Amino acid sequence: MLPVFAAFKIEAARQHGDTCSGSVVEKRNWCAWQSGPVFQEDRKFYSHAGFNSREIRIAFMNWLWHDRPLRGASTITQQLARSLFLSPRRSIGRKLMELRLAQYLERRFSKKGILYLYLNTAYLGAGTYGIQSASFRFWGKQAEDLNPAEIAFVLAHLPQPDQCPSAAQCRSKVLLSRAGRLQNAIMQSCEAR
Predict the structure, then answer these.
(1) DSSP 3-state of 129
(2) What is the Cα 43 distance to its own chain's centre?
(3) Distance between CA atoms of residues 74 and 27, nearest Å
(4) How far apart are alpha carbons 74 and 115 in whole angstroms?
(5) Which residue, among 28, 3, 157, has the nearest Cα to 83 in the 3D structure?
(6) CA pair distance 172, 164, nearest whole angstrom
(7) How many other C-beta atoms can be found within 10 angstroms of the C-beta atom of residue 35?
(8) Cα separation of 76 and 50, whole Å?
(9) C-beta of residue 29 within 8 angstroms of C-beta of residue 56
(10) Domains of the chain by range and CATH?
(11) Span 10-24, mean pLDDT?
(12) Which of 130, 182, 117 is nearest to 161 (CA)?
């Protein structure tokens, strides 16, 4: 079941002609789905309390000293907080609120629960929210029926969902080229549970 704010955002998107379908349940290849974003976007996911202070410090210093736009440094939990509760507009105030909400989510949900919510509410381009919708959009089948190459292609859309498909194709190839390391990460992740 989606949180109220997420359901509201998805319903608003649906009214504007965007597409979305239900959430994926924990079934076949769930470990691959949940390990992929950790490997790709937030390798310290299981060891932080919602945010990575080192990455935030680096992003802030780059903004302050080099006049670079505020960039990334968001953990999976922060991305979930932003997608559920905040606007996409970048600002210091939004980042601070994102940190507080990430800490709230970390207290409220298990890491597995956070990944479940993230994967089922993440924007994946062209009005598609969640891996179930993306699986149907890209492959015409359920998320649980995708093979590793298809999973990698869907997950490759997480960092920049509206970028051209060829960029996602390149990122999915990079993910697959690291398949040995990814497979080890998946196995360790699955064994830890």
Answers:
(1) strand
(2) 12
(3) 28
(4) 14
(5) 3
(6) 13
(7) 23
(8) 8
(9) no
(10) 4-192 (1.10.3810.10)
(11) 50
(12) 130
Judged by phi (left if over 0) then psi (alpha if -120 to 50, else beta), residue 178 lies in: alpha
Is-contact 28 59, C-beta < 8 A?
A: no
Q: Token pair for residue 159? A: 């960092």
Distance CA 133, CA 130 (A): 6
Are 148 and 32 spatial neighbours (Cβ–Cβ below 8 Å)?
A: yes
Residues 140-158 pLDDT 10s: 998 888 888 788 888 887 8
Sole residue written with tokens 């601070």: 96
Please name the residues in contact with 21: beta carbons below 8 A apart, sequence gap of 6 or more.
130, 132, 133, 136
Q: What is the C-alpha to C-alpha distance for residues 94 and 91, in angstroms, rounded to an integer?
A: 5
pTM of the model: 0.72
Structure tokens at 78: 């922060």
Question: Which DSSP string corresponds to 142-192?
Answer: -GGG--HHHHHHHHTTSSSTTS-HHHHHHHHHHHHHTHHHHHHHHHHHHHH
Chain length of the chain: 193
Helix (H) or strand (E) holding 104, with range, is helix 92-108
Which range among 42-51, 104-113, 161-170, 177-186 shows the weakest confidence by mean pLDDT? Answer: 177-186
**Nearest-CA neighbor of 15 among 7, 23, 27?**
7
